[in-house]
């Protein structure tokens, strides 16, 4: 595990891939490790994943709390004036109101609080002492979903500003204990994938897949029906008790009532997707069924990639029993949808 001080320590209980385990063995010294985590700046590992802790987080850290990172106007103003980076800037803007970054970007003081203004957007200038809390709100809480550095930066940068913001968030995400335990090392594709024709109309083509069986939740759910739109990358997920064709049809009716009926649906060769009932359902709605090649999930790469992301996000928030995973789905879907997609730009 890496910290802000670049200290390598052993992660007790972490699940490693075969490649990671092989790499670790090659670098093991001939003495025992101390399993404790060295302090890295202000990063502290979570002590518990209990339901009580997360419910307390939700009560204390609503999305509205990010407006002033949990502080009153007076507190944030005093901290800005005391911060070594912003103290001279605060005085200069207050006295002369210079446009320091050209015509499009400038610092302004509103209600005795320093902001970075870009057009109509106004972002709070964050002093050093408040930055860990901002990064926590943008990365570790349930509606942030422990997403990667780029999406975490986009979420934070929509409301806040400080110099070297992207670099700080990149380091914060790199040393996140939860992410290091649950995110395996990514490998490049061994073969080139054959892309499907580009779709520009939202929900004209969707892909769907089943995740599971998972640990049976307290509500009796064991599976997730995952649906992704090819044009917008918009994901949807339905917790299911069974994966029979009638259950899948009922979930699709809910989806179609909100987004409309697609022209094409891409699925694997599962019997719940190829059954007689599904064929009649497609026929009555005028939907063309596209099937993946057997034992070749890369054909449905969009939904398969989201499945991996969703499972990693769930790993970071479920309790010790794993039976509350369906309760976190709405929060994690919100976290994924809120930030722009790199491939689409929105």
Automatic annotation (TrEMBL):
<dbReference type="InterPro" id="IPR001584">
    <property type="entry name" value="Integrase_cat-core"/>
</dbReference>
<dbReference type="Pfam" id="PF17921">
    <property type="entry name" value="Integrase_H2C2"/>
</dbReference>
<dbReference type="GO" id="GO:0003676">
    <property type="term" value="F:nucleic acid binding"/>
</dbReference>
<dbReference type="InterPro" id="IPR050951">
    <property type="entry name" value="Retrovirus_Pol_polyprotein"/>
</dbReference>
<protein>
    <recommendedName>
        <fullName>Gypsy retrotransposon integrase-like protein 1</fullName>
    </recommendedName>
</protein>
<dbReference type="GO" id="GO:0015074">
    <property type="term" value="P:DNA integration"/>
</dbReference>
<dbReference type="InterPro" id="IPR041588">
    <property type="entry name" value="Integrase_H2C2"/>
</dbReference>
<dbReference type="Pfam" id="PF00665">
    <property type="entry name" value="rve"/>
</dbReference>
<dbReference type="InterPro" id="IPR012337">
    <property type="entry name" value="RNaseH-like_sf"/>
</dbReference>
<dbReference type="InterPro" id="IPR036397">
    <property type="entry name" value="RNaseH_sf"/>
</dbReference>
<feature type="domain" description="Integrase catalytic">
    <location>
        <begin position="198"/>
        <end position="346"/>
    </location>
</feature>
């Amino acid at each position: 595990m890496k910290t802000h001080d670049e200290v390598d320590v052993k992660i007790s209980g972490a699940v490693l891939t075969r490649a990671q385990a092989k790499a670790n063995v090659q670098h093991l010294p001939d003495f025992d490790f101390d399993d404790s985590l060295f302090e890295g700046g202000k990063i502290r590992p979570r002590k518990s994943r209990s339901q009580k802790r997360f419910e307390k987080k939700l009560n204390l850290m609503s999305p509205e709390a990010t407006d002033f990172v949990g502080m009153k106007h007076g507190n944030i103003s005093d901290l800005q004036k005391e911060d070594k980076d912003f103290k001279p800037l605060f005085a200069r803007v207050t006295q002369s109101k210079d446009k320091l970054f050209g015509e499009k970007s400038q610092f302004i003081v509103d209600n005795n609080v320093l902001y970075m203004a870009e057009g109509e957007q106004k972002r709070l200038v964050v002093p050093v002492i408040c930055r860990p809390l901002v990064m926590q709100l943008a990365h570790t809480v349930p509606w942030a979903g422990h997403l990667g550095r780029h999406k975490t930066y986009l979420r934070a940068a929509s409301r806040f500003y400080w110099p070297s913001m992207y670099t700080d968030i990149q380091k914060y995400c790199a040393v996140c204990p939860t992410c290091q335990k649950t995110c395996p090392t990514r490998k490049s594709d061994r073969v080139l994938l054959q892309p499907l024709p580009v779709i520009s109309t939202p929900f004209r083509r969707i892909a769907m897949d089943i995740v599971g069986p998972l640990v049976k939740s307290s509500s009796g759910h064991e599976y997730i029906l995952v649906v992704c739109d090819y044009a917008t990358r918009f994901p949807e997920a339905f917790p299911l008790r069974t994966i029979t064709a009638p259950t899948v049809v009922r979930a699709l009716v809910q989806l179609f009532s909100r987004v409309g009926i697609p022209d094409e649906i891409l699925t694997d060769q599962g019997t719940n997707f190829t059954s007689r009932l599904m064929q009649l359902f497609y026929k009555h709605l005028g939907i063309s069924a596209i099937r993946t090649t057997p034992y070749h999930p890369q054909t449905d790469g969009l939904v398969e990639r989201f499945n991996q992301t969703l499972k990693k996000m769930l790993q970071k928030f479920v309790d010790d029993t794993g039976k509350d995973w369906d309760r976190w789905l709405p929060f994690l879907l919100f976290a994924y949808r809120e930030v722009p997609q790199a491939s689409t730009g929105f």
